[in-house]
């Protein structure tokens, strides 16, 4: 399901099952709120009794009783409020844990093509949306929603103790309602614009941090500064616009509250003169009017929180509605032999005009090593990702031992088809942690076998902390060749029958390239190794070389025939990526 085509109801549907387990908690909170708001009536009643009974009749004993009663009420009120806050926090934490796990699992299940459609900043922002949902469901915003209906209770009490001024408050209520509704409509729009502006700014910062070495080496400050200032100015402008609207409605609501108090006092004074109302009743009514107006004022000032909450719910719902990869196969298959077949496979990137792969047909039979070469943009990396199931073909099929690759789960495929991308990523932790990241159940024997196979072991044991060496952020504490070997060993640790490598020797020196070639040649004795490379050393060890051009196979043959200009041959020079 395309997230852009989902309806608002569909984008919010995921929230129901999440809230269902905590509904009993919110019901208990609502009951507590009933008692809290009922006890709030004690203050105006206390004031009414003091002015109409204690002051008028000098009833000091009555005053003592009233004060003792209020102390008990306030103590009980504090206990209830504290209990309500803890229950809301507990419910919010439960929601946070459930939704956080659900969101992480969803991101892990999304196809790579879907993850690449949006920048990394978008996916990071989803976890900030999770915080918005948690805070809204546990903080003052949640209490306000629960307390708002009790304004009706206060209004009824005003009718009981001061009916002449109750009609004034009743007439003022539509004004507060209209202010809340109108502010919500405006803030929904301005809040969305502000978030988009902040998103653009954060995306630029993310690019700067990711490419900090290039930024510093080439002194790109002057080139980046105008972009930063443009995005930062846009964020400030949107923030000022949103703040201006918020302040405007908050100020109008404050003036409306004061005007309501003035009106109530004026009509109350007239009623006192006409002996329709007592002074105590008027003061108590003013207290109740403040309690009625307060939630609406808070609603106007807090509407940004609700706008952010609603937008966060819909953004999360849009992601949850995206189709994911197969999580659990219908039948557990045995380890395949490693025969790969391409059946009229075509693939086009979402914004691409021409297909990256165009009707490929091929059969790759193990064992042995297959080389893939071609000009930039010929589809080499795309082909590896399709072979590994990271990209689903737009048409055609990829078969593994005659079975459609689309039916298998990602853990199964990663165990059968090892993949080393061109840009290797190491995660924070030790060398051992990174080697076992995809196979935590593997033991030391499997780890050492993979490390020795790619020539990693000799380099790691020479380090003071050996396999316990911290790799640093992205592996920056290690040499490029060591990082490359770790990435290859990580792909081999499950002993997959098929290994796909994208420029595996790009960070290796000539000696390292020869060692890797020998290791891959040994591995290819009983495995299928597919390598995208322009290394003459690696290509010379290949059984077959495939030449790609514009997503099509234009030449297939032994290395000396397919790429004689790289590995040597009698056919003379041939320019890669063109049909001979």
DSSP, total strands: 10
Low-confidence stretches: 569-580
Backbone CA Rg: 35 Å
Count every helix, treating DSSP H or I runs of 4 or more residues as helices: 24
Features:
24 helices, alpha/beta, 580 residues, disordered C terminus, 10% strand, four-stranded antiparallel β-sheet, single chain, 62% helix
Question: Topology, pairings included?
Answer:
Elements: H1 8-12, H2 15-19, H3 23-40, H4 42-57, H5 60-109, H6 112-117, H7 120-138, H8 140-147, H9 151-161, H10 163-210, H11 212-217, H12 221-273, H13 279-301, H14 303-320, E1 340-347, E2 357-364, E3 368-374, H15 380-387, E4 395-400, E5 403-404, H16 410-416, E6 417-420, H17 431-435, H18 444-453, H19 457-460, H20 480-492, E7 498-502, H21 510-523, E8 528-532, H22 536-540, E9 544-549, E10 552-557, H23 559-562, H24 564-567
Parallel strand pairs: 3-8, 3-9, 6-7, 7-8
Antiparallel strand pairs: 1-2, 1-4, 4-5, 9-10
Helix pairs in contact: 3-5, 4-5, 4-13, 5-7, 7-8, 7-10, 7-14, 9-10, 9-13, 10-12, 10-13, 10-14, 12-13, 18-20
């Amino acid at each position: 399901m395309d997230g852009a085509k989902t309806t608002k109801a569909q984008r919010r549907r995921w929230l129901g099952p999440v809230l269902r387990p905590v509904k009993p908690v919110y019901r208990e909170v609502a009951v507590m709120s009933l008692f809290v708001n009922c006890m709030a009536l004690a203050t105006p009643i206390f004031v009414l009794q003091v002015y109409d009974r204690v002051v008028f009749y000098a009833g000091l004993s009555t005053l003592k009783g009233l004060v003792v009663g209020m102390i008990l009420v306030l103590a009980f009120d504090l206990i209830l409020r504290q209990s309500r806050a803890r229950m809301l926090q507990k419910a919010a934490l439960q929601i946070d844990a459930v939704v956080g796990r659900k969101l992480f699992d969803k991101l892990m299940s999304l196809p790579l093509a879907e993850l690449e459609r949006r920048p990394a900043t978008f996916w990071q922002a989803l976890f900030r949306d999770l915080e918005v949902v948690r805070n809204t469901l546990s903080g003052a915003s949640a209490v306000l929603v629960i307390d708002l209906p009790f304004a009706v209770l206060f209004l009824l009490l005003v009718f009981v103790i001061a009916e002449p001024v109750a009609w004034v408050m009743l007439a003022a209520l539509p004004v507060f309602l209209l202010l809340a509704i109108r502010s919500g409509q405006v803030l929904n729009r301005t809040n969305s614009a502000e978030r988009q502006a902040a998103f653009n700014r954060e995306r630029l910062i993310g690019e700067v941090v990711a490419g900090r070495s290039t930024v510093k080496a080439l002194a790109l400050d002057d080139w980046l500064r105008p972009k930063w200032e443009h995005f930062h100015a846009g964020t400030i402008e949107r923030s000022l616009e949103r703040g201006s609207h918020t302040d405007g409605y908050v100020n109008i609501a404050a003036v409306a509250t004061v005007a309501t108090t003035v009106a109530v006092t004026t009509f109350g004074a007239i009623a006192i003169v006409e002996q329709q109302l007592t002074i105590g009743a008027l003061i108590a009514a003013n207290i109740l009017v403040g309690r009625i107006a307060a939630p609406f004022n808070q609603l106007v000032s807090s509407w940004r929180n609700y706008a952010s909450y609603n937008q966060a719910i819909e953004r999360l719902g849009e992601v949850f509605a995206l189709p994911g990869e197969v999580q659990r196969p219908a039948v557990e298959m045995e380890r395949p032999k490693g025969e790969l077949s391409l059946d009229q496979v075509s693939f086009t990137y979402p914004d691409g005009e021409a297909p990256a792969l165009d009707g490929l047909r091929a059969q790759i039979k193990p064992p042995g090593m297959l080389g893939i070469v071609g000009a930039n943009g010929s589809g080499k990396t795309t082909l590896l990702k399709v072979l590994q199931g990271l990209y689903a073909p737009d048409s055609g099929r990829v078969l593994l031992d005659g079975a459609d690759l689309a039916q298998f789960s990602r853990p199964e495929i990663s165990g059968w088809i090892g993949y080393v991308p061109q840009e290797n990523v190491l995660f924070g932790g030790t060398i051992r942690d990174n080697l076992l990241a995809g196979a935590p159940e593997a033991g030391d024997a499997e780890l050492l076998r993979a490390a020795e196979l790619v020539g990693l072991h000799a380099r790691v044991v020479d380090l003071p902390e050996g396999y316990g060496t911290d790799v640093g952020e992205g592996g920056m504490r290690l040499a490029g060749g060591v990082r490359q070997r770790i990435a290859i060993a990580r792909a081999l640790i499950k002993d997959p029958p098929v290994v796909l490598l994208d420029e595996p020797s790009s960070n290796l020196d000539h000696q390292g390239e020869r060692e890797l070639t020998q290791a891959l040649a040994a591995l290819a004795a009983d495995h299928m190794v597919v390598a995208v490379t322009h290394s003459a050393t690696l290509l010379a060890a290949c059984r077959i070389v495939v030449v790609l051009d514009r997503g099509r196979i234009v030449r297939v043959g032994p290395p000396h025939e397919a790429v004689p200009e790289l590995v040597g041959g009698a056919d003379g020079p041939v320019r890669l990526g063109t049909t001979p």
